Amino acid sequence: MDYRHNNPTQDDVDPLYAYLKPLPKIELHRHLEGSLRLGTMADIAREYHLDLPGYEVEQFRNLVQMMPDDPPTADMFISKFGTLRKFYRSPEIIQRVAYEAVIDAALDNVIYLELRFTPIALGRIKRYPLTDVTDWVISAVDQAKAEAGIDVGLIISMNRHESVELGDKFVDIAIDNQDRGIVGIDLAGAENHYPGKPFERVFRKAHEAGLNVTIHAGEWAGPESVLEAIHVLGAQRLGHGVRIIEAPDVMALVRDRGIALEVCPTSNLQSGVTPALEKHPLPYLYAEGLLTTLNTDDPGVSGIDLTDEYVVAMRHFDFSLQDIKQHVLNAAQVAFLAEAARQSLADRLSAAYDLVEGTA
Prior knowledge:
The chain has a single domain (8-359), classed as Metal-dependent hydrolases (TIM Barrel, Alpha-Beta Barrel). The protein is of the alpha/beta class. The protein has 17 helices and 8 strands. It has helices at 15-20, 38-48, 57-64, 74-84, 91-107, 119-123, 130-148, 164-176, 200-208, 223-231, 248-256, 265-270, 282-287, 299-302, 306-316, 321-334, 339-359, and strands spanning 25-31, 110-117, 151-159, 182-188, 212-217, 237-240, 260-263, 292-294. Strands 1-2-3-4-5-6-7-8 form an 8-stranded parallel sheet, with helices on both faces. It is globular.
């Protein structure tokens, strides 16, 4: 990968990173728009003469990637996407970034990936039809899957600050493409400013069509957002969800219903959800029996890969390899796959981790 790890102790020569890198992994929460390679952005910037300080990576890195001296706030994290949106200048570019996002996951030994994308974000600058954008993403992902031997499910994500009518179009596109790898629908964005309630009918239609539902909640707003995601929108999984720690009754509800948390530790640190990795809620939620999983969120923006998140879990949360294995198996259990496929995936992963544990 050509993006830098922000933490120099977690680079490719780190023995723990090197130990964890070959392990098979699952990722359930990765945004395509936050997964662009820096080298690809440099190529695009030069070709299209984008309005940037320069076309060498170090001349624009701070605009698209969280830097060590950036304030750890949601506003700073989100600001990176303002620059990233400048790069979607052609169908070929959209296909390239989708293809590379899957290839990069495969290079990190992710064997099953759920990649979410927002068609309007990819198509807005050139006003591309949303159906065309979706076709381009699907075709690029199919190519990468075939070449890399990785299984990928696609999730269409809509934003809370955009119209319900646009969300309705996204659901229709998802329904029309269920046989082409679209496995679910997502609601993202500033939950602290925009409620999910207006999208209730949109998600009811998604459920009725057999689409899976994951909702960003409990990240930048508290437990009330999680309750809305469950009771109003029918969330099967929660994007982040870590702020349920603030309400034991909501935490119990999530645990008792078997609703999984798509936890992204580095993103949570960089966007101010947690003040320090040592204070992240994940170890407590895991110890309390919730279905927690490990994910990157936006690996290009954060300057990480999924192996880095495993390193974080072992270094800062005192997780053992058995704990990492359990998080991978949790992800297999709640993946948006048919039951037989989930079980096959879990069996494959369990055997691989047992082999590593047996030689450790």
